[in-house]
Automatic annotation (TrEMBL):
Residues 274-285 have a biased composition (Basic and acidic residues). The lineage of its organism: Bacteria, Pseudomonadati, Pseudomonadota, Alphaproteobacteria, Hyphomicrobiales. Belongs to the NAD(P)H dehydrogenase (quinone) family. GO terms for cellular component: cytosol. Keywords: Oxidoreductase. Residues 262-285 are annotated as: Disordered. Residues 3-215 form the Flavodoxin-like fold domain. This is NAD(P)H dehydrogenase. GO terms for molecular function: NAD(P)H dehydrogenase (quinone) activity.
Amino acid sequence: MSNILIVHAHPEPKSLTSALKDLAVETLTAQGHTVQVSDLYAVNWKAVADRGDFLEKAQPDRFSYVAESRHAFATGTQTSDVEAEQQKLLWADAVLLSFPMWWFGMPAILKGWVDRVFAYGFAYGLGVHGGERWGDRYGEGNLLGRRAMLSVTIGGRAPHYGERGVNGRLDDLLWPIQHGMLFYPGMQVLSPFTVYQTDRLSEAEWPAVAEAYKRRIRGLFSDQPIAYRTQNGGHYDGQQVLKPGLGAGVSGTRIHLVQPGDPKEVLEGTTGRDAAREMEACSDR
């Protein structure tokens, strides 16, 4: 059985978002998994990244969050709340982020969790930079081998977030989270579970939503992840720009998904293992 971390961000324990979190705990526990929940509002998580995050100052005369984060992680002088969350991430085999969509993104308290916990040397600033390789990121990193999924409640209607919807494609709105925060440090990201028109959901509609979420939870370790291109898999040139000949027929963020028609000759430098993994993920999407 596996270890699952749920990072939950909703201020109301009786909300739909919180009900989905509780359902995830119940379903995963029934499967025999071990679950930890970081309930950010319940613990009054410090969301603002500032000088107070560092017990020792590497540069006392001029504050640089990156420099202080690197120093604190390297010297073991991070604050206890940040270190505890990092240990949970290393413990976990999968991570669920549970939150309502507010103003086209996550609540500030959850963004603050990412800002503070994803420290330099832990989630970024890893690996050798040189040639076409810009460190260990986008498919590599300290969180490699873990799975991640978003559970997002949305007040708007589903068509508003469709291909031609006025709010923009949901995949594009979630791109900074799924690709930029989860795939960047190495996690495999599953398609999100979403519930629309949450303020209009009736008691009669809840059982269908609950059953759909349980199906997704049960597939946490079997469903195919989003087929993002790995940074160091031969898809990008020395400036980290997608090579010519890749991404044909699509646009926007979708060019960064492995496509069935990608010419293999363009993927020079792709290791056999990386190529097989990426093309398999693509073919099963």
